[in-house]
Amino acid sequence: MQVKSKSGRIFDLPTPEENAEINKGIAADPNTYELPNSEFAKLKRIGRPPASTTKERITIRLSHEVVEQFRASGNGWQIRIDAALKDWLKTHSPTP
């Protein structure tokens, strides 16, 4: 059986026979075990914590010069573009 991830990648799931072999191997290995659902639910999420304020993903076309300048300023260049636009909004009102 195949499943498709959110990113579009396709994965082959193991057959019931393959799954049984995998579980047999886990059971035979003294250095590992499969967590019961109750323990699995207690695990802490790793990675970046959810942001307190979320941003909207969009596509925007900027001139090559603007992108080049911001990228040249190093990591976080997209955040700096966001800050520059917020600063611009302080002195300009958006017009329909």
Summarize this structure briefly:
The protein has four helices and two strands. It has helices spanning 16-28, 37-40, 64-72, 77-91; strands at residues 2-4, 10-12.
Q: What is the strand tally? A: 2
Question: Can you list the strand order of the major beta sheet?
Answer: 1-2
Largest sheet report: 2 strands, antiparallel
Q: If you average the pLDDT, what whole number results? A: 90
Describe this structure in words.
The protein is mostly helical and 96 residues long. It has one domain. It has helices spanning 16-28, 37-40, 64-72, 77-91; strands at 2-4, 10-12. Strand 1 (2-4) and strand 2 form a beta hairpin. The longest helix is centred in the C-terminal third of the chain and has 15 residues, at 77-91. It is elongated, with a radius of gyration of 24 Å. The model has no long low-confidence stretch (mean pLDDT 90).
